[in-house]
Amino acid sequence: MKTLQVYLRICFFALIIISLQMNYGCISNAQQYDLLLKGGTVVDPKNNINNLSDVAILNGKIAKVALDIPISTAKKVINVTGFYVVPGLIDAHTHVYGGLIRGAHADGEYSVFPDGYTLRTGVTTVVDAGSSGHRNFKHFHDGIIALSQTRVLAFLNIVGMGLSGSVHSQNVVDMNPELAAKCAKDYPNHIVGFKTVQWQGKEWINVDRALEAGRLANLPVMCDFGRFYPVERPYQELVLKRLRPGDISTHMYKKDVPLFDENGTLLPYLIEARNRGVLFDLGHGLGNFEFSIVVPAVRQGWWPNSLTTDLHAECVNHASKDLNNLMSKMMNIGIPLVNIIEMVTWGPAKMIGRTDLGHLTLNAVADVAVLNLVKGNFGWLDVRNVRMTGTEKFQCELTLRDGKVVWDLNGIAAREELK
């Protein structure tokens, strides 16, 4: 009898323990994720995803991408039905040294502060393209990079004073590859390459010095070709002989770049340059996007590796405006949506050597843009004030940086709704 009583007591306590474990497990499961983006179309080119999926986030990281993740598993659920959910956008050619401060442009194209122009368009990472050099990068880092919600990376100008005006950009003495490379090694989490820009001479010294810095630091070079000298310094030589695989030619649609033969057919050397590994960046800006050039080039397959605004204070109120505007413009010209998303996520991430960004892989940083493809009658401008019309444009509804809401256009992440 005692043996039976002992046995029954053991069974009773075992049932209690199992019940507690099951209840604890349910509670734990109900709070598995911090945030769930529910019902959107996920476009993640790196992972070849383009379908309806939910995105779950935990501790600032991507925790799961799958169809029909239960809402009971998340502390907060945001309904993104009808929207596109994509990795946080990367604008890999900007000028964000922060207005009229040391190191900003001295020729009218002033840098801007990043946060006011980025998060509202789904951009979570920008790359400043040469606004600073080794002499003033610390100032840029401490005054802008370290204080911004936007992730700010940089191509370091081969000129030590950075973009301090076209006169300074001709200072060959200040083009020091060793000091530039040392600066890059001192800031490995922020400097992703080197930049040469505004050079007006007929020699290759600016390119050679930048390439030497790239060799010393094992980083790519972004080249803004500067003034064109077709005989002494032909563009073809730059992309076929001087730039290395992984180096970048920006302003790829600039009117001085030889793109077409006399019949309007794309020149074959461009494909040869791409096949040898040179990358091509759009770099819209104030003067590098004319429909008469871009439209035939795109329709003949000459597409960018990265769509970039060349963001600075003047172009934000001009034809470039912002990255969503540029994405819309290029899609209207004929590049499919999935390719557009790649050109502002995984494409630039690879270009700058930051393959931790630009995708929604498990445990990747939860930088996310929720985009609405708005239908209507719209118009876009080129740098010559020529207008193109279309019926679809991108609009950013929601931006997450490290899993936190940093932009919410229509309050879809709000705590409650006023009745």
Structure description:
The protein has 419 residues and is α/β, with parallel strands linked by helices. Helices cover 26% and strands 25% of the residues. The longest helix has 29 residues, at 2-30. The radius of gyration is 25 Å and the shape is globular. The N and C termini lie far apart (66 Å).
Question: Any key phrases for this structure?
Answer:
419 residues; alpha/beta; TIM Barrel; eight-stranded mixed sheet; 15 strands; 26% helix; 25% strand; globular
Short description:
By secondary structure, the chain is of the alpha/beta class. 26% of the residues lie in helices and 25% in strands.
Would you list the SSEs in sequence order as H and E? HEEEEEEEHEHEHEHEHEHHHHEEE
Please state roughly what percent of the residues sit in beta strands, choosing from under 5%, 5-15%, 15-25%, 25-35%, 35-45% or over 45%: 25-35%
Q: What is the correct CATH architecture of the domain at 88-357?
A: Alpha-Beta Barrel
Helix content: 25-40%
CATH H level of the domain at 88-357: which superfamily? Metal-dependent hydrolases
CATH topology description of the domain at 88-357: TIM Barrel
Distance between the termini: 66 Å
SSE blueprint:
Blueprint: H1 2-30, E1 33-44, E2 49-58, E3 61-66, E4 74-79, E5 84-87, E6 89-94, E7 123-129, H2 137-143, E8 151-157, H3 177-186, E9 191-196, H4 205-217, E10 221-223, H5 235-242, E11 248-249, H6 268-275, E12 279-280, H7 291-299, H8 323-333, H9 337-343, H10 346-351, E13 368-381, E14 387-401, E15 404-408
Parallel strand pairs: 1-4, 1-5, 6-7, 7-8, 8-9, 9-10, 10-11, 11-12
Antiparallel strand pairs: 1-2, 2-3, 5-13, 13-14, 14-15
Helix pairs in contact: 3-4
